[in-house]
Write a structure and sequence with these properties.
By secondary structure, this protein is an alpha+beta fold. The protein has 2 domains: about 80 residues, Nucleic acid-binding proteins (OB fold (Dihydrolipoamide Acetyltransferase, E2P), Beta Barrel); about 180 residues, Up-down Bundle (de novo design (two linked rop proteins)), CATH 1.20.1440.120. The protein is built from 9 helices and 8 strands. The chain has a 5-stranded mixed barrel with strand order 1-2-3-5-4. The chain has a 3-stranded antiparallel β-sheet with strand order 7-6-8. Helix 3 runs antiparallel to helix 4, helix 4 packs antiparallel against helix 5 and helix 5 runs parallel beside helix 8. The chain is elongated. The protein starts with a helix and ends with a helix.
Length: about 260
Amino acid sequence: MSSRERVFRTEAVVLRRGDFGEADRLLTVYSPEHGKLRLVAKGVRRPRSRKAGHLEPFTRVTLLLARGRELDVITQAQAIEHFTPLREDLVRLAHAAYVVELLDRFTVQEGESRALYRLLLETLERLASGEGPDVTVHYYELRLLELVGYRPELFHCVACRAEIAPVEQYFSAELGGVLCPRCGPGKPGARPLSLAALKVMRHYQRSTYPAARVPSIRPEVFSEIEHLMEDYLNYLLERRLNTPVFLKRVRRATQAAGQISH
């Protein structure tokens, strides 16, 4: 193995971390060239560690890595962007945690994707800059699903293949998309889908983000999309996501604090 292969540099975003041994940390990061990586940061939990502040979750960082037998080792780390506003707002922090959990769950080790990395960065930047979290996150969900091969069908009935008409429909997580009013009733697991929610999802699926953020969406429509997407994502992953529960708790606490202040 050449020295070039033994040591390599990459940009990445830190997805999550955990303690490892007495003073080390085990990190999961996502890199545009190398995809998802599990890495060891040795001695980073010691008080004098210079790398610790560069390896916080959601941080965009440049890493110098040394190949290891089982896990690669972080030898240098330099933060590019900390996305500090995410850590100053609990609601945005919860949304950011959801964003990185989705990417983590839908990707595998060493599965390179520059498009996924760009989508992750853009989404964290939007959340940190104060963009509406509902638009930002639902747009991210649909784009992520497209990039990983699970784009939901929103334009034709997944049962009879008829073109979807502008009326209320049904959605089947198992079948991966919309069911028309003739095929949807009685289909196991199918749930009603309002025309308003369908229009928003279709708009997000085929639009750029600047175009997607223009329409004003009613809160009840966002709520419907959130529940539908949660069911669909849980079905695809065959397990429940952790962060939606945290996000709901944060929202309740924020709403309660707002009522008290008034």
